[in-house]
Amino acid sequence: MEKFSQLKEMLETVEADFTAFYEKGNKAAGTRVRNAMQQFKVIAQEIRTEVTEKKAS
After folding, report:
1. How many CB atoms are closer than 10 A to CB 20?
2. How far is it, in rounded angstroms, from Cα 3 to Cα 26?
3. pLDDT tens-place string over residues 35-48
4. What tens digit of pLDDT does each residue of 1-56 get?
5. Collapsed DSSP state (helix, strand, coil) of residue 2
6. Contact at 8 Å (CB) between 33 and 18?
């Protein structure tokens, strides 16, 4: 559950960058959004691995 909480916190922090990129066209915010999405991907994969291990045990 810790990693899930971490994802939720990250989403809240990157929300302003999403708005800045999509509504205001701020390219630097787009870079931050891309970096955050990569971090989401890594954490999501870690969660998937944990779930699989827990199911198997």
Report:
1. 17
2. 29
3. 999 999 999 999 99
4. 889 899 999 999 999 999 999 999 999 999 999 999 999 999 999 999 999 999 99
5. helix
6. yes
Cβ 10 vs Cβ 44: under 8 Å? no
Q: What is the extent of the structural domain holding 6?
A: 2-56
Cα(12)–Cα(10) distance, rounded to whole angstroms?
5
CA torsion through residues 50, 2, 10, 32, sign? negative
Give the distance, in angstroms, between the CA of residue 7 and the centroid of all CA atoms in the same chain.
5
Give the chain's count of helices (H) and strands (E).
2, 0
Angstrom distance (rounded) from CA 14 to CA 22: 12
Contact by Cβ (8 Å): 10, 40: yes
Number of domains present in the structure of the chain: 1
